[in-house]
Amino acid sequence: MGVFSAATAHCQTMPANQEQTAAAKFEALLFYSVLGVIFLAAIPYGSVEPWWKALFQCVIFALAGASLISREFGLESRELSVDFRRVLIAASALVAFSLIQTVPLFSSTLAGLGEVRKSLSADAFQTSLFALHITALGLLGWLLVVHTNSRLRLRRVVYVIVAIGALSAIFGIWRGAAQREIGFLLPYLRPRLGYAQFINSNHFAYLMEMALGLALGIVVCRGVAAKRSAIYLIAAVPMWVALVLANSRGGIFSLLCQVIFLALLLGIDNHKEDGRRKENSRLTHWGRMIAIRVVLITALLAAAVATVVFVGGDPLAGRLETSSIELDRRSADTRTLRQSIWRTTWEMIKDHPIAGVGFGGYATAIPKYHLASGETTPQEAHNDYLELLASGGLIGLGIGAWLAASFVLGLRSQLQSTRRGAGDRFLRSAKVGALAGILTVGIHSLVDFGLHIPANAFIFTALVSIIFIEPEDP
């Protein structure tokens, strides 16, 4: 009788165990599918073409839907941290405001057409696409935070980002040395135009800044053992060289800022050997650390400058020389240069100070204000902060500030809550490395628009997600 009862209980528990196993496998499939989206999006020119962008967005929406549905089949739901919820709420406000910009709120009478309904956006269709894009990025971040539930998975997120950077860098160096005609694995690649798989070398620089910052952050904060640090450093070498060879002035400057930021972090996680250490010993310790940081900053800056001089060569020197021309007011009056674009954008901002011309509506609205020859018309402001103000006005700027403040508060909370034990060293170093990449992109965005490229936006979202990932294992 006892044997029969035991066998019956075993049969009753088997379906539950099998259901849990199936749910775990499906959850793992979701996680690796998200990583696959991030990796594959970097291949076709960074997914700059509309149909590639739409494809990856559809995949993200499908994965998010599958993740929600899977809760009905035994997959346990993780609670999001308050810090990450604040960021998602701010991002949702940006989506909501962009949708409001598409609503036809006004009417005007046009000759031959009669009464025409108009919205806040100069291009309501593009603004709606912007709302879809931001929603997809929010869902991508949510998927990463929810399904990166262990340190092993966090390592794999880091591996994917570093691998994308290293492989792109190697491809760029190979292409620069070997390409002689149109088409190099990808049909639209032209000699001496763009870098690696990107049509624009500045967009490639964004990718390098993010991947390089993550890799170097882990090394500087000693997040891995010495042998594994060598792997990260080996991956960093082609990224560093390719960033210089890409001849991106904004990328070079951002790299130098990244070097200084990481050098200042040296020793920041060192433990105090004894809480009762004497004051003079403590002063000696900090004096030694300051000296080491000064030496490291000097050495890294010297290495960066040497790389620029000896690797970048004449093409980079020529690009640096054009900086003064591009900022010359007389040249900017008749050419599509940054100063001209910024001045034109400011005129547009003054005409639409409250709600802007609509996110995604910049290219449609700018011809009215662009006074150059008309041979070329800017499609972007070449300054994401200026474009935020132009597209969303003071309302959009306020939402952007809200989003940034939510991130900063969450970052501070996450870094403070991360324990300083050996088990959390990789977690903390990954967050610091992600921060290095985010800050570098923030600097570069003063003069470029690389986050408009879907692949870069996906990786940037992954870096933000790393800040808020809280693995469950000890």
Give a description of the structure.
There is one protein chain. The protein has 474 residues and is mainly α. Helix content is 69%, strand content 3%. It is built from 15 helices and 2 strands. The chain has helices spanning 2-41, 50-69, 82-102, 124-147, 151-178, 201-220, 226-245, 249-264, 279-326, 329-332, 338-351, 362-365, 384-417, 425-444, 454-468; strands at residues 104-110, 114-119. Helix 7 (226-245) runs parallel beside helix 9. The radius of gyration is 25 Å and the shape is globular.
Question: What descriptive keywords fit this protein?
Answer:
474 residues, mainly alpha, two-stranded antiparallel sheet, 15 helices, 2 strands
Summarize the topology.
Layout: H1 2-41, H2 50-69, H3 82-102, E1 104-110, E2 114-119, H4 124-147, H5 151-178, H6 201-220, H7 226-245, H8 249-264, H9 279-326, H10 329-332, H11 338-351, H12 362-365, H13 384-417, H14 425-444, H15 454-468
Antiparallel strand pairs: 1-2
Helix pairs in contact: 1-2, 1-4, 2-4, 3-4, 3-13, 4-15, 5-6, 5-7, 6-7, 6-8, 6-14, 6-15, 7-9, 8-9, 8-14, 11-13, 14-15
Shape label: globular
Q: Give the oligomeric state of the chains in this entry, treating copies of one chain as homo and distinct chains as hetero.
A: single chain
Query: Helical residue percent?
Result: 55-70%
Strand order in the sheet with the most strands: 1-2
Rg is 25 Å
Portion in beta strands: under 5%
Mean pLDDT: 82
Series of secondary-structure elements, N-terminal to C-terminal = HHHEEHHHHHHHHHHHH
Major beta sheet summary: 2 strands, antiparallel
What is the rounded distance between the termini? 43 Å
> What class do helices, strands and sheet pairing give?
mainly alpha
